[in-house]
Amino acid sequence: MRKMTLGALLLGTLAQPVAAQLSDSAAYNPALSLTLMGQYANYHKLDELRLPGFQLGGEAGLPEQGFSLDHTELTLSANIDPHFYGQVSAALVDHDGVTKLELEEAFVEATALPAGLRLTFGRFFSGVGYLNSHHRHSWDFVDAPLPVQAFLGGGYYDDGLQLTWLAPSALFVELGAETFRGGSFPAAKGDDDVGAYTVFAHVGGDIGFEHSWQLGVSQLWAKPAERTAGHDHAHHHHHHHAAIAFTGNSDLTIVDAVWKWAPGGNLRARHLTVQAEYFLRRESGELHEAGASGRYSGRQKGWYAQTVYQFMPRWRVGLRHDRLTSDNRGSDPQLLAEAGLADADSAARRYSAMVDFSPSEFSRFRLQLTRSEIGGESGSAIFLQYIMSLGAHGAHRF
């Protein structure tokens, strides 16, 4: 029997349509998947996510204090016919004690295109960066890194089209382009026209049987219209400044890198993952509210790096560091401050450590400790999380 490399195992799900992961017996029957997620959160000197220099939106914010549903997700998927695959994902979330059902994804995928092409249309998570296209239950930490929250609203999904091309080579090479309505942060466009575009490229491969790697670069062009703090489908705590709206251009560049190691290529025994992303955003346009307006230009940077080590079957430990800085300028300093875009005296930093235990591949319990230093103030958080998967559950992305 031919020995599979680590990269072939980890990257294999990317090299074929999602529909190919379904068994023949279920090809035309909907596969139902339910991921139960919940947690306990306790904060010390940290009641809201405030990031001076950044206008937060989307799902950026802290999980609810105390016991809460985190992101229980229901997914229905199936081959529609030999040419198309469909999927719908909805999440149950808590906001201020009210449980809501939010539609995250509802897309159709053309699986029979020639020459390695794949077309996706509907609502889906963008392919920019690395973490953004991963569903929340597959994250290695309870919450998203600060840059993912600040630049992508905790996770960027929108209505639109995606076209990807997979190169017919031993080296994993994927190129993609997307066009979106722009109704989601950071675009937050108010009308029905196209408001965001992206391009991205990912390349990866193996080094022997024990090592695999992936590098990526992405670009997101957005045209916000009347974007305000907390705009969009937010359901977490936000720090709501006055309704200062931003209209202009928002261009984001992301560079990501991932390296994985498993002794002998055996993922079940031990494995190590090192992951990092760098974000650079340039914004320019106008800030305005009733009776006042002013020019605004911003240059904001952020990155995170994390490592997760499974030191024995079922047990993992992880460390993560996040950092954000901003260099924003405006013709009206008061308007800039009221919009939450005034620079902090120092960079926003956060340090997180976690340990988790998985009784099986369908269940996980996690403890996470986080220390934040933001805007000259320090705070801490402790999380206890559970993740339980019921029903059909496809392979996670690399």
Structural descriptors:
16-stranded antiparallel β-barrel, 398 residues, single chain, 5% helix, Porin, 3 helices, mainly beta
Strand content: over 45%
Say how many strands there are: 17
- The structural domain count equals 1
The stretches of 5 or more residues where confidence is low (pLDDT under 50) are: 9-26, 233-242
Which topology does CATH recognise? Porin
Mean pLDDT: 87
Q: Count the helices. How many?
A: 3
Major β-sheet strand ordering: 1-3-4-5-6-7-8-9-10-11-12-13-14-15-16-17
What is this entry, summarized?
With 398 residues, this protein is mainly beta. The chain is built from three helices and 17 strands.
Overall description:
The protein is mainly beta. 5% of the residues lie in helices and 55% in strands. It has three helices and 17 strands. It has helices at residues 6-11, 146-152, 333-338; strands spanning 31-44, 66-69, 72-81, 84-95, 98-110, 117-125, 157-166, 172-180, 196-207, 211-222, 245-261, 271-289, 292-312, 315-330, 348-360, 363-374, 377-391. A hairpin with a 2-residue loop joins strand 13 (292-312) and strand 14 (315-330). The longest helix is centred in the middle third of the chain and has 7 residues, at 146-152. Residues 9-26 and 233-242 have low confidence and may be disordered.
Topology:
Elements: H1 6-11, E1 31-44, E2 66-69, E3 72-81, E4 84-95, E5 98-110, E6 117-125, H2 146-152, E7 157-166, E8 172-180, E9 196-207, E10 211-222, E11 245-261, E12 271-289, E13 292-312, E14 315-330, H3 333-338, E15 348-360, E16 363-374, E17 377-391
Antiparallel strand pairs: 1-2, 1-3, 1-17, 3-4, 4-5, 5-6, 6-7, 7-8, 8-9, 9-10, 10-11, 11-12, 12-13, 13-14, 14-15, 15-16, 16-17
